[in-house]
Design brief:
alpha/beta; Rossmann fold; seven-stranded mixed beta sheet; 41% helix; 23% strand
């Protein structure tokens, strides 16, 4: 068995979920600034996630779900997922974002599994609180290692693909580390760098 683990925001999906949501409340600029600092590794991911989600307090859940179900896929995503599966890979998504987005994406594009966070809601509105499986900078690496141990998958048969600082932890356990349209901090630790927004370019790199 082989494993390919993708980040979601700006990797499988073209953009940042939190920024799409922030447009509804007029705080996109503030959220984007926090996101950029976190992805460059300038501030702790847990702290940045709490701050950004807190700014969404009061947003209607129906609106959240509508936005999340219509997020734009990264060019080449369907071809890439199918291609990797044809090569014997289990294709998984690790996201510091939210199940409102990753679950519909999984169903639409055929991911094998997703691990992400949950936006807390009450009476149909966001409370500004968040919890889940991907809350910390170390969460992706920890989950990847657990999947490898459970499934008996070796590091040499593991690919990790991401774009930001919170993807660094999974690089430690991946034999192939791909920085996709990534921040400098991730490129410095990658085996493969792709700077064009075409996810299917990964297939050529994996085959070679």
């Amino acid at each position: 068995m082989k494993l390919a683990v993708f980040d979601f925001d700006s990797t499988l999906m073209d953009g940042e979920t939190l920024e799409y949501l922030a447009r509804e409340t007029g705080i996109e600029k503030e959220v984007k600034e926090i996101t950029e600092r976190a992805m460059r590794g300038e501030i702790d991911f847990f702290e940045s996630l709490q701050k950004r989600v807190g700014l969404l307090k009061g947003l209607e859940v129906k609106t959240v779900n509508n936005i999340c179900e219509n997020l734009p896929p990264m060019p080449g995503v369907q071809k890439t997922i199918k291609g990797l599966k044809d090569m014997g890979y289990k294709v998984v998504c690790f996201s510091g974002g939210f199940k409102n987005a990753t679950v519909p994406f999984l169903k639409k594009y055929g991911l094998d599994c997703e691990f992400s966070n949950i936006l807390h809601e009450k009476d149909g509105y966001l409370t500004g609180l968040v919890g889940g499986e991907m809350m910390f900078g170390s969460s992706k690496g920890s989950m990847l290692r657990r999947l490898q141990l459970i499934s008996g998958i070796d590091k040499s048969n593991t690919i990790a693909i991401g774009d930001g600082a919170n993807d660094l932890s999974m690089f430690e356990y991946a034999g192939t580390r791909i920085a996709f349209c990534a921040k400098p901090i991730l490129k410095q630790n990658a085996d493969i760098i792709i700077d064009k927004k075409d996810l299917s370019l990964i297939l050529d790199k994996v085959l070679n």
